[in-house]
Amino acid sequence: MTKKIGIDISGNKPKSLDMYIHEPFDLVITVCDNAKESCPILPGHTINAHWGFEDPAKFEGSEEVKRHFFSTIVMEIEYRIRLFLDLPENAPHHEYHEAVHHIGTLKKGDMPSYAFA
């Protein structure tokens, strides 16, 4: 499915977050409830946000229905990433933090309700 949208993940392998535990992060976004619950506290001034999505691997139905569901999740993730990339880099930290959290509540087509001073 990812190849259809131009993403080749065939060489990717799951990695444990443990190997990055001592690396400083500015932002950590979890996308499944399991990761939200098990994500360790990371060093630095990290913004932790949860952008929850239903897990496509757990979705049941025909192959056609599964593909449609997966495509919907991909579009939702893409929409949120585009909103994130449009955030001003010079926004005050607390406003940026709130906007990152707010983006996680939006569905494709929802208009963001955050504003920056």
Structural overview:
This protein is mainly alpha-helical and 117 residues long. The protein has a domain at 24-103. The protein has 3 helices and 2 strands, in the order E-H-E-H-H. A two-stranded parallel sheet has the order 1-2. Helix 1 (33-38) links the parallel strand 1 (27-30) and strand 2 (47-50). The longest helix has 23 residues, at 63-85.
The structural class is: mainly alpha
H/E element sequence = EHEHH
Span of the ends, CA to CA: 41 Å
Quick check: average pLDDT? 83
Rounded to an integer in angstroms, the radius of gyration calculated over CA atoms is 16 Å
Instruction: Output the number of helix runs.
Output: 3
Draw up the topology in text.
Layout: E1 27-30, H1 33-38, E2 47-50, H2 63-85, H3 93-103
Parallel strand pairs: 1-2
Features:
single chain; 117 residues; mainly alpha; two-stranded parallel ribbon; 3 helices; 2 strands
Care to give the gist of this entry?
With 117 residues, the chain is mainly alpha-helical. 34% of the residues lie in helices and 7% in strands. The longest helix has 23 residues, at 63-85.
